[in-house]
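To assess whether the prediction recovers the assembly geometry, we first specified each molecular entity separately, as shown.
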Amino acid sequence: MSSFTEIVPKLIDATTEIFTGMVMMDISTAGEPVQELGPLKDTITGMVGLAGIHKGLVAVHFPYEVALAITSSFLGMDVDEVNEDVQDAVGEIANMLGGNVKTLLSDRGRDIELSLPSTISGEEYNFSSQEQVDQVILPFKAPAGVFHVELELER
Amino acid sequence: MSAVVAVPYLTDEETVVQLDRFIIDATTEVFASMIFMDLVPGDVVGDGSVDLDVAISSMIGLAGDLKGLLAVHCPRQVALAVSGAMLGMEMKDLDDDVKDALGEIANMVAGGLKTSLVTAGSSVELAIPTTVVGNSIRTSGFSGASTLVVPFRVPDGTFAVELNYVLG
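The predicted structure of the complete assembly is given in tokenized form:
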């Protein structure tokens, strides 16, 4: 499990880099890892699976306002509804985070592949993984609000 | 089996024919071995146009020669009935037991799909299942990917298995 704890600071760095470099948005961590998120409201989740010797999931949960701000920044134009562009942007962020996690874990000699990114969005939903998982949920603060990055790895 | 061509080399049409067959076989197998409920596969559709009031979706990623996401989408009554049949008890709410059961179903259907793909010469690994419960949830796959949806009818209604995928 020590390798899981080591990943957390690297995951924080990876998230910050993606936002600074690709989304052109300053973010910072917003406190300690969260135990669980509870119902997600007016939120869009991007996720990508990790498969291979180690199995897991990387998910990023953005409240709509944050997702709109991110997509507007990505596209260089104002986006005011959660449409396909937003789904693509959110999926792409999840994909990039997944790629970083894959590299982090692969560097330690683990053979991992990514699945395809997908998104879920809605007025209210609960998001939960089965299996015996090690899970970490990291809060971040963007100008438009707080969002969370979630990493789950099968034990 | 020696006549079967590896999935990445099939034409798109042949791929769709094989994949929906694999999904039907995998789902039928799961129901026959674990759920003991009558299951009737419907016609495959190539997009999200199966009209269901989805209350719960269980999803699992696939990676390798085929990359994608397999999702099992159920209306509330179907989820309660199917998980109840699997667990041998009456389910009243979309609680953790129902979510776990649906997640396990997605895992097993994806596992069956993986086995068929491996037999056909493709290497595929599974990620971990996730379940989402909510009202009016929208899911979207990768925009550059293909989608197939297979509806299945059970006594309590219809559910759908969706595969969003990219080959190679």
